């Protein structure tokens, strides 16, 4: 039923396309002042061990990674953000052996470290805190469903890591993109896990992944996904996690990231601005002007603030501004296909393998060891789940 992902990883390294220009949301500018205020607040949440707090006073590796993503999006040198002489990287090194014990956590850590390296700081993912993240991310892929890991976020980060570590080229091994086609629900959305039902966060993350591998915005799966997100937008322009929940900052920011990736016009007066107010303007209403924090349930929330910053800056995963957008994905005529899950889906096929590059096991200038590390698995994104404690725990938010 399962095959080794290591074999799959080698085939992933074989193919891709040259990246093109970055897609951006039309007629709207990033909220840099709001992001700067949020970053100041985020820095105030760092503990002397270098880690960041989330739901209590203790540092958490998962939440610290969310803070790292925010700092990277804002152009900060993560190693220069310190408390007590320690940076988030110093803290994560002390936590790696305990934290990266499963592929999802290892992949989230590996992706963050790659982005830190993309900013100019050398990282060795074959030996980070005594952990070989390449080995830690080795897992299996389900031959029947094509899913990597335990949930959609695992699969998302497996594919996103591939885009990042391949330097802007798509991981197109058989089944990886097909899985998003076959798992799309009839309402156009994607669910965190089987039986959960569609939600805005998972859907937004999948859309960023599809666009990240070169699927165009007019693709039926993307169109249906965007239509589902629109169904979760209220009259103010904000977005909810589910149809029967109140809008929140994290969900609004995550959807903004997906809309920016798709090149949607989110300015006031545009198609995503009910009442003439765009979602980015609405997102600002969740910010406490005095502290710079973004709020959840009326209270300043470090966790929400970490996750909002990329949306404020209109930056999407996987690269958070470090990678150009891909050229359009062109499937091969003779590649594998998969039956669609719902009416909104269709088969995607992958090109046949080409000459395989050598994959190193030590640190190198082109990052080959940590390239493979993030390919192998997924994890929790730096995304809010609006009060769903079980899902938050699964995403290693605490």
**CATH domain topology:** Glycosyltransferase
Number of H- or I-type helical stretches: 15
In terms of per-residue confidence, which ranges show pLDDT below 50 for 5 or more consecutive residues?
1-24, 332-398
Question: Based on the structure given, which CATH architecture is correct?
Answer: Alpha/alpha barrel
- Secondary structure tally: strands: 6
End-to-end separation in angstroms reads: 33 Å
Order of strands across the main sheet: 1-4
| Major sheet attributes | 2 strands, antiparallel
Reading off the top of the CATH hierarchy, the class is best stated as Mainly Alpha
Order of helices and strands: EHHHEEHHHEHHHHHHEEHHH
Computed structural class: mainly alpha
Helix content: 25-40%
